[in-house]
Amino acid sequence: MKLSFDFLIIMAFISNVxxxxxxxxxxxxxxxxxxxKIVSGDIGGGxxxxxxxxxxxxxxxxxxxxxxSTADIIVEFNKExxxxxxxxxxxxxxxSFCWWANRLGYxxxxxxxxxxxxxDKKKGxxxxxxxxxxxxxxxxxxxxxxxxxxxxPGYAINPNxxxxxxxxDYDWNSDFNQRxxxxxxxxxxREEIIVEAFSNSPPYFMTNSGCSTGNFDAWEDNLKEDAYxxxxxxxxxxxxxFHTEWNVTFQSITPLNEPYTNYWGAFNYKQEGCHFDxxxxxxxxxxxxxxxxxxxxxxxxQISGTDESSIDTQIDSFKELSEEAKNVISRIDTHxxxxxxxxxxxxxxxxxxxxxxxxxxxxxxxxxxxxGEMGAALGLATRIIxxxxxxxxxxWVLWQVIDNHICKDGYNGKKDTGMPNINHGYWGxxxxxxxxxxxxxxQKYYAYGQFTRYIRxxxxxxxxxxxxxxxxxxxxxxxxxxxxxxxxxNVSVEFKLSDFGHVGTNVKVIRTSGSLDDGExxxxxxxxxxxGKGFYADLKGHSITTFIVDxxxxxxxxxxxxxxxxDVESTEDVEDVEDIExIExxxNAEDIDNTEDVENVEDVESFEDVENVEDIExxxNxxDIExIExxxxxxxIEEVEDVEDIExxxx
Length: 651
Fold this sequence. Notes:
Blueprint: H1 5-15, E1 40-41, E2 45-50, E3 53-58, E4 73-76, E5 92-96, H2 100-104, H3 108-119, E6 129-133, E7 156-161, E8 166-170, H4 176-186, E9 194-198, H5 228-246, E10 252-254, H6 280-295, E11 302-310, H7 311-320, H8 323-328, E12 329-338, H9 342-351, E13 355-360, H10 374-391, E14 395-398, E15 402-406, E16 430-433, E17 438-441, H11 443-452, E18 460-462, E19 468-473, E20 478-485, E21 491-496, E22 506-513, E23 520-529, E24 534-539, E25 543-549, E26 577-578, E27 595-596, E28 626-629, E29 644-647
Parallel strand pairs: 4-21, 5-6, 5-14, 6-9, 9-10, 10-11, 11-12, 12-13, 15-16, 26-27, 28-29
Antiparallel strand pairs: 1-2, 2-3, 7-8, 16-17, 18-19, 19-20, 20-25, 21-24, 22-23, 22-25
């Protein structure tokens, strides 16, 4: 039990210890630095720390918090809104390597520059998730995919089908470009990077249409009914080769990508894809993949699914899985291109005891009014905040970091898209200029970095509202807050952090705004100072701001317990008071320099309504104090004897 401020004042009165440091007698100095922050206390005084030692703070200069906020909006973070997925630990941000790595990986220079821009923690975004595409590979005689980046090569060659069994050989030199980009990214941050393998389509010879872009009827399954084990074996073989030959172990693997849609038709110009009906079709391939992976000895490799395009479809697809398939899946992966039932999906994953990722999204959406280059940046930030606040997913993965390429010669006989209009909406966050051998960054890139550079793996996400998101770093004892201001004018915000045990003084501020030429990119602006457990900030119009609050404790910090300082016998002219057991018949308590290991203070019966004690010069005897009532002024009191109870002292 902590001693109250009133108790300490009375003991100072009795022992003639200056009220300037009323805890001195009990082994604790008063804090010397007026800026030392209070960790815990009550209305009379509090406890802080200086040089890792507890010290007492009297409220001579009380901390003030405005009773009524004048801010435009109030953002509050409550611990009850923390994510519980992956044991409350965020796994990170990332991107798919399909298809940009397939396009630029031929160039060591571009692959290295991309690895630095996207996966280097100091020089770039510091991404730590890679979704690696295991291409099915289309029929070599087909030439209908017109994009320069999306014709993904597969590993299977020389296929044969005898009416019941599928056999094939492997070309492990295939897919060099994507693999080159993978290795360079891994070199930037191998200790944190997670690699997930995913498939858009089985190899063409396992499909009903003979084409890896889909079935003739896009609403029909394209994997042949007897090819489920063969497709699972193909994926497991690739996973095994990556592990044994290239030292890359997939954390997870999925055979499905937006399966319950009508996107995937035969001879499509765009990409590989394969429809799977909800229920048996999706269940069967998940079960077969689990068997094939286990046979390779990868019993710890997770199976994820089902990566539906729509949040609402993802809910239905999971519910339609067989119980065996549900048990196979350890994590629900969803895309958020459409649908709105994020909270329902989160609750479904929680109740099913599954982890949850937002595994793919991007788009040409913008936010703000005439926001220029910040329009796409604000659009991305708003999507990240919305997804993570409602889903509370343990990962958020962008579709492609590069969706546009500049090259006068094109690639493989196809024409590149060129530079997009970055004042409007566009896919991707950067552009690869093959002619100039450089990666062109955009404000959308820097918007992503406002999250990825500061919310790191192992943090705990905390959902909120008003376009704000937070994450707590339990090791570094800091709180990271990211806010997007989609308005063209400044907005004042009060951040309330009262749910945390302790909040430090300093707030670091990092901001992206304006254009590439004359705006801000991860600019460190003037720091802020907290007021108690919160702080005020002005958000610049059309900006994304990251606040890093230092010295934040998740739970209440216990202050020193001095409730057992009883039974001290005498404290006259003592320089070092150790192991004092009793305080009785104290005549004078002057000149005490140090008090350690004081164990007990007893026989004090009542101290009520004490408001102030000033200018007490000397108390010669405090034995058997019986009564002091209704004292109106305590100035210049020189002797108090034989009093049993101290009540109603008004001072």
